[in-house]
Amino acid sequence: MKQNEHLHAMRHTCAHILAAAVQKLYPTAKFGVGPVVDNGFYYDILFPQPISEDDLAKIEAEMINLVNAKLPMEKSEMSLDEAIKFFGDLGQEFKVELLTDLKEKGTTKINPEESGDVDLERPDVATIYKTGEFIDLCRGPHLSNTGEIKSFQLEKLAGAYWRGDENKTQLQRIYGLCFQRKSDLDAYLTMMEEARKRDHRKLGQELDLFTFSPLVGPGLPLFTDRGTTVRDALTAFVWALMKPYGYSRVNIPHLAKSDLYKTSGHWDKFSDDIFHVSSKKTDDEFVLKPMNCPHHTQIYASKIRSYRDLPIRMSEVTAVYRDENSGQLQGLTRVRSITQDDAHVFCRMDQVKEESMAIYEIITKFYNAFAMPLKIRLSTHDPEKMEKYLGSVEVWDNSVGILKELLAEMGKDYETGIGEAAFYGPKLDFIATDAIGREWQLATLQLDFNLPERFQLEYTDSDGEKKRPVMLHRAILGSVERFMGVLIEHYAGAFPMWLAPEQIRVATVSDDFVGFAKQLVQDLDKAGLRASLDDSSEKVGKKIRTAATSKVPWTIVIGQKEVDGGDFRINVFGEDEDLTVAHGEIIERADEAAKMPIE
């Protein structure tokens, strides 16, 4: 068994050990599903009485007993009817529901992240695993016995509706961690402790970047002037990188008729996630736009296009709206109002590689600026489940082949994510690693033959024939909100000077120097720098500490020496030693320090 497969089996086995421990401590507990997730596992359970975080210690202690007992993971099979009766006799109603769906519908139709725990190896046979006294419906794989578990720990307790449906029973979800070695577990726990310190929800409030209001609604962040400054700096940076590659800006409304998304295919795929808009003045059905690509196709379709016109590169930073479940909302990283750094390229087939290479270059330059290494995942269709996608297998195989050729020509290593494609085409996902080692899928390049076909987009080729353009979807930072959340945690709130909402704070030693300090702030402002004045009555040490609490990159102290033309003494956030700058060079040095990192 390969290392990754072995770790997956270990984590899967841990989920069963968790359930076995719970059954021993709470004999009337009812069990939902318990799949493997990143870094560990979880199990959804209905307890006779809700448990608390304090109860996790005794559950974990019982798990240790089961591991030390080296219990075999015994596999057996039953027919679906036998399994329904068996779990019914045990009072395990959730297992019975899953088995009944499998028998009657051929599927459990539960959330994708949970489906692996209950899908059967054969449609008419239920696979059963026994761990001590605990018996579960599961296809595996597992380790041969519980003693092979190396290092695990229960992590936290959360609520979870059965099968993700808020109209169904609310269960309690116990999350656990599992690793090959204790050193790996310790390293992960250290990283998570650092992540808690960097939590963007906490830092965002402390640094006055954004807020939420119950009157506005959950998942709808409100950005302050400071937060808006960061947003504007990010999008300006993306535009500065894109502009040399020939992109132009477009602008579309936030509403559209539902017909637009019915034509594109998004309606059937995402209808539950779309906000509907009612009107008393029209019979048309309108929605808040959940994505921008269908709008952009209509700009392309608004006039006759020639092969000479291509490529056409449309760029826009605009909001889309998704009706996310309230339980899935999380700070800026999962919201209902999503500002997308969006662009679509309409090109000829012979231009696909060149345009894709340009997008790759923009993405690379962008993430280099934040010292965030990238790895690439080629996300493809699943040939076994073509009903999930638009277009034929031949179109998909051709699209995937083009991206593979591109990666080969660039000499780039990549992993393959089967079934991870967008429903209209394969994509290259760029996965960034932040300062504490966490991975985030942010940038993407998507190849699309399907939307041009569905919208009947055309151009006249050099031979006079009408042909379909190819459509490239691309995002650099992705969602502005999500990227800001990632970036706040990446920098622990201490943005580089070019990005900081307040770049320079000028602090006076006493009231005698306020006039000079005000003039300096005005000069910095005229130079395009974001500067502020602290002329309060606090002592200068307190002023410096206050600026450090706000993580201001530069704090310039103004006293008699500076007024008399001496060098400026600058406290640089995060540095032990002050920076000394000659009196006549302060604007130039500040401007240089605050420049965008354009190569």
Question: What would you note in describing this structure?
Answer:
There is one protein chain. The chain has 599 residues and is of the alpha+beta class. The protein has three domains: 3-197, Threonyl-trna Synthetase, Chain A, domain 2 (Threonyl-tRNA Synthetase, Chain A, domain 2); 202-489, BirA Bifunctional Protein, domain 2 (2-Layer Sandwich); 504-593, Rossmann fold (3-Layer(aba) Sandwich), CATH 3.40.50. The protein contains 19 helices and 28 strands. An eight-stranded mixed sheet has the order 11-15-16-23-20-19-17-18.
**CATH architectural group of the largest domain:** 2-Layer Sandwich
**Count of distinct structural domains:** 3
What's the total count of β strands?
Answer: 28
Strand order within the widest sheet?
11-15-16-23-20-19-17-18
Number of helices: 19
Determine the fraction of residues in helical runs and give it as a percent range. 25-40%
Structural class estimated from helices and strands? alpha+beta
Could you name the CATH topology of the largest domain?
BirA Bifunctional Protein, domain 2
Write down the overall geometry: globular
The whole-number mean of residue pLDDT values reads: 91
CATH homologous superfamily classification of the largest domain: Bira Bifunctional Protein, Domain 2
The profile of the biggest β sheet is: 8 strands, mixed
**Which regions contain 5 or more consecutive residues with pLDDT less than 50?**
110-121
User: Which band does the percent of strand residues land in?
Assistant: 15-25%
| Global Rg | 28 Å
CATH top-level class of the largest domain: Alpha Beta
Q: Separation of termini?
A: 46 Å
